[in-house]
């Protein structure tokens, strides 16, 4: 192994339980910081700029969520490709992925920024954004679109580092950008000291400044540390996109991004049904979902960590270790998610009271629906861990199909069918049903599906029949051979 390769943080060695926990905790911390940042920004806007401004941010953030949801899948595809390449000790292939990813993300982000900037008024009208909110939303969203290149490239670098086995560096720079954003927000909104008074545009500008500075600081740090994945002057040729890698980023990344779209559109359907029961029920549901956001964080962090860790072990052909990573991930999900859920049951009234008045009817409704639905996020966590493992090989369509079936074909029809009998409870019970259905389907696919034969990159060597040789080698307890693309010909 080269000296550069020897310096990489390997997820193919050491105790699985400790390695996975130490890798997942910074990812969880990054997720918490992002949510905290959004909450603080909303607090400043809602309390000091009014309801119309807060409504503007809510509408703008829906657009931003869709944009980041799509790029999430593409970034995750990059994470898996790099993880597999490094697991196979193919540093050259990892750098090809980085080079293609840099060119792709920069190109896409610039196009999105230009199109979004000029299309902002049209998008807001298409969402039926209230007229008084549009006056705030247009300047806010246009600055956010200017920030999109920094956001996309920053996200790409963080996911690249995770694929390389480093989740701590992304966490530190996420903390840096969040603190900067939180500090700059009131300074630019109100024009404190030398800062201009920008109103709601100041909130977006603080995000733009924080993301851009953090991005350049991260790039500077990677080059100063001589990170093994940095592109040197002699390796700039890798910036020319590799057609096979580019194809994988798009066709494997988009289905993973569509999973986020399925989740968000299902949430829109459910809140539409909740709205039929009046503002008190909607307020109760809104308060409960605030808690659910935090309950889901451990599962999503473990799922992301498992995916990166499994990808390196898939690349190394260590299939027994992949199986143990799955088991440890499921156990951690039950421990971390279960602990949060237990705390919510113990302090249900107090936790929901953070969002609702203590004497409100909505608080009682929120306690009731929470007691029915919150425990089901244990199932959700198992699903995300299993999805994280199977997508580490390149199996991305089955998880998308499973999510679609559980969130569109189980949850809403069940709620509608039993509504005459159970009333609003039919909606609350649809959450455990959908989560249970997705978990059972994910377990079935993990056990009997063909995810071990999936590929991120299809190479001529694989097409020539190397799969059989890999299967024999893995069954014999050897390390599976790798292809020219740094992807193992895995056993099933």
Short summary:
This protein is mainly alpha-helical. It contains 16 helices and no strands.
Q: Report how far apart the termini are.
A: 28 Å
What share of residues are in beta strands? Answer: under 5%
Structural class: mainly alpha
Percent helix range: over 70%
Describe this structure in words.
The protein has 492 residues and is an all-alpha fold. It has three domains: 23-241, no CATH class; 258-457, no CATH class; 459-492, no CATH class. The chain is 79% helix and 0% strand. The protein has 16 helices and no strands. The protein has helices at residues 3-6, 16-48, 51-87, 91-126, 131-163, 168-190, 200-224, 243-275, 279-316, 319-346, 348-352, 361-373, 377-390, 397-422, 425-448, 460-475. Helix 3 (51-87) packs antiparallel against helix 4 (91-126) and helix 12 (361-373) packs parallel to helix 15 (425-448).
């Amino acid at each position: 192994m080269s000296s550069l390769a020897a310096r990489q943080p390997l997820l193919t060695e050491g105790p699985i339980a400790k390695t996975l926990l130490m890798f997942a905790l910074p990812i969880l911390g990054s997720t918490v910081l992002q949510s905290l940042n959004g909450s603080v920004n909303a607090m400043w806007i809602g309390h000091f700029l009014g309801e119309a401004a807060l409504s503007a941010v809510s509408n703008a953030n829906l657009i931003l969520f869709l944009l980041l949801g799509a790029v999430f899948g593409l970034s995750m595809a990059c994470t898996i490709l790099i993880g597999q390449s490094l697991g196979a000790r193919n540093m050259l292939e990892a750098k090809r992925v980085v080079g293609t990813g840099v060119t792709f993300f920069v190109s896409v982000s610039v196009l999105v920024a230009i199109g979004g900037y000029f299309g902002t008024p049209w998008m807001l009208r298409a969402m039926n954004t209230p007229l008084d909110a549009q006056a705030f939303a247009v300047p806010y969203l246009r600055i956010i679109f200017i920030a999109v290149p920094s956001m996309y490239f920053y996200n790409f670098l963080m996911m690249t580092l995770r694929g390389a086995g480093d989740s701590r560096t992304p966490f530190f720079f996420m903390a840096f950008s969040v603190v900067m954003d939180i500090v700059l927000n009131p300074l630019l909104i109100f024009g404190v000291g030398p800062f201009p008074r920008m109103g709601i545009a100041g909130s977006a500008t603080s995000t733009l400044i924080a993301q851009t500075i953090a991005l350049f600081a991260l790039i500077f740090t990677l080059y100063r540390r001589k990170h093994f994945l940095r592109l040197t002057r002699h390796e700039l040729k890798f910036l020319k996109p590799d057609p096979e890698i580019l194809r994988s980023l798009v066709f494997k990344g988009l289905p993973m991004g569509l999973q986020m779209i399925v989740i968000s559109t299902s949430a829109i359907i459910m809140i539409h049904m909740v709205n039929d029961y009046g503002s008190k029920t909607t307020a109760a549901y809104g308060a409960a979902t605030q808690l659910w956001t935090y309950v889901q964080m451990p599962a999503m962090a473990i799922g992301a960590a498992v995916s990166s860790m499994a990808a390196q072990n898939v690349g190394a052909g260590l299939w027994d270790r992949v199986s143990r990573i799955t088991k440890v991930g499921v156990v951690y999900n039950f421990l971390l998610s279960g602990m949060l859920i237990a705390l919510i049951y113990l302090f249900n009234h107090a936790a929901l009271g953070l969002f609702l008045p203590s004497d409100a009817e909505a608080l009682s409704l929120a306690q009731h629906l929470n007691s029915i639905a919150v425990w089901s996020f244990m199932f959700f966590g198992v699903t995300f861990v299993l999805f994280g493992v199977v997508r580490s090989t390149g199996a991305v369509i089955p998880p998308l199909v499973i999510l679609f079936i559980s969130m569109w074909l189980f949850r809403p029809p069940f709620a509608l069918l039993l509504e005459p009998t159970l009333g609003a409870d039919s909606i609350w019970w649809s959450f455990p049903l959908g989560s249970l259905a997705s978990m059972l389907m994910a377990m079935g696919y993990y056990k009997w599906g063909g995810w071990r034969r999936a590929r991120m990159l299809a190479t001529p060597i694989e097409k020539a029949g190397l799969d059989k040789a890999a299967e024999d080698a893995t069954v014999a307890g050897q390390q599976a051979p790798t292809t020219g693309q740094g992807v193992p010909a895995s056993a099933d």
